[in-house]
Amino acid sequence: MTVAYSQQGAIAVLTVDNPPVNALSVAVRQGIIEAIERAVADKAVAAIVLIGKGKTFIAGADIREFGKPAQPPRLTAAIAAIEASPKPVVAAIDGVALGGGLEVALGCHFRIATPRAQVGLPEVKIGLVPGAGGVERLPRLIGLDPALKMIVSGDPVRADRAASLGIVDAVADGDLLAAAIAFAERVLKDKTPLRRLSEMPLNASADWRTLLANARSTAARQNRGQISPLRAIDCVENAITLPFDKALGETQRIIGELIPSEQSKALRYAFFAEREAAKLPDIDRSVEVKPLRLAAVIGAGTMGAGIAMCFADAGIPVQILENSAAALDQGLARIDSLYQEMVQKGRIKAEEKTKRVGLITRASGYDGIGDADIVIEAAFEDMAVKKEVFQRLDRVCKADAMLASNTSTLDVDEIARATKRPESVIGLHFFSPANVMRLLEIVRGAKTSKAVVATSQALAKRIGKVGVVCGVCHGFVANRSRGAFTREANFLVDEGALPQQVDKVFYDFGMAMGPFAVADVAGIDVGWRVRRSLDATRPNDMRYSPTADRLYELGRYGQKTQKGWYRYEPGSRTPLPDPDVETIILKSSREQGITRRAISNEEILARCLYAAINEGAKILDEGIALRASDIDVMWLYGFGFPRWRGGPMYYADSVGVARVFESVRDFQRQHGALWTPSPLLQRLAESGKSFAAP
Ligand code: COA
Hints:
- Helix content is 49%, strand content 10%.
- The chain is built from 28 helices and 17 strands.
- The two termini are 37 Å apart.
């Protein structure tokens, strides 16, 4: 039974039991209706409690059902049945009540939650709007402004906040079911009137038009290019101006348009891609996850400091080691000021800052980190340096410590060979700024043990990152595929485009920043060093753009020197086109013997993205990435690829692999060997298949 029925005294208990997350599949919807009918009909029942089995209430609609023909009964019918019950219905919420789950709870007359419960309407995040009365009921319950924020952001709120907003009537410590039954009994005793939200007025303040206008402009800015938050605001507007049923009808019409939309499909794909990335064919729950109680970071530069903050943010004590006391002081000062900024922005409280800063301590030399369960090396990106660090770690670290390198390019197996315990060595590649970017590329070496991989995945989750496992190659998956993208961006500039044109194409595509603005943030000097590390292996006849090297030679390192591909006003991070850069570019084109030409935006998009896709296909073929969707997840979380476009490999599928392949072949004819099509791309194109279904 997906909805179990039982009775405790005069209270009927309806338990939704649809593992893993009690999603509202057709059987659950039907089950709710039948159970409510039974309870209403049963004279021995005076009130009803609706609860979820397991750790959660209801995680929402079954996302896998979207896009398939809808099967009756609709969720709105189940919720209407609950709300219409003449007997009080109490929702007992543990875990999450999300989307349809919260809508079910809003159909109940009362709500009670555990302290750890969370409630929210995340539909906009999968390109939809709450379609079963959430948009209409929530503002009636808590007022327009807070409801609007929850509906448009999709972010859940915790129980205490839900209580202060009035979403839940009580927060119950201890046994939830017992508390819900006691609550129901009190409702009966006090004859508390039933609250049917659909029958209540929606009291919008006089300035609601301004409120919605502001919400629209914020949504357009924060979720650039994404339709669903704007459509959700349209639904809220209908909820204000139309009677409940009419507004709900309109919402259903809008959701009917959104479900088959490309954006919603891509966002749903991204949801599952992210969960898929956590699964490895040879690692299951039986693999032991090591406890991580103490961490150490080698290097207090930008990366090291950011990584230390990730641990402190998760409450894990972390030691930092640096070569010189001055460098360590500088790193610690940077950490302090980053936390201070968070306090000033109201993101954390001052006490929280003190707590986190207190978790980060100075290590007294290598001998001081012998107890660490995990060490992450974030030293200079140079193989000799890394090997020396790992040799020392091998000498001082306890036997079962995990030894990780934050290298972004170097051979993790070679680093592992510097130790006598390669099974303990792994790459944990954070993205800059490490305390902000959510991607963690987990680079599994040839000898890395399963326990170390599983522990790295668990660590990613614990520190709020999205961990994606891959194999070893230069640049691994994320930077290698991204490298092809930036390579073409640089060539395009040599051929006739300017950085601002290229960046605008990708900004308009939905990326947070274009490749040249990103290069200025990452540091032109960093890119220069990476290119030097590749010099020895680059064939002499391979095309190479020297333009970024010219910037480097002029000391234009990017934002940190206020000059890079752009110029920056003091204290500002806004990239401004720089005539000096144009001069440098024109000169570079001349020196390379290139006659500059007008470059179309379409060419920019295709050259950069298809290069990344072709490289991604090579990476897949080589078995470095497990699945195309893993590459997509990396781009979503590492490079700000617009989520509503799914990711580069998904984008290839949506354009059509055959079309991408044809273009790659055209580019090969025009530009030579760098565009050699990946055999996988060719196979998929010729067999009419896709990256999603190879
Ligand atoms: N529909 C279908 N499957 C769902 C689902 C949903 N609404 N929510 C979660 N799942 C599945 C996941 O795909 C995963 O399946 P898998 O084990 O086969 O990979 C499983 O349930 C567990 O989810 P996961 O996200 O890995 O667990 P978690 O404990 O980290 O998080 C939730 C649980 C419910 C918070 C999270 O899954 C979530 O946010 N779900 C979506 C909620 C939502 O958007 N609801 C509105 C839909 S309109």
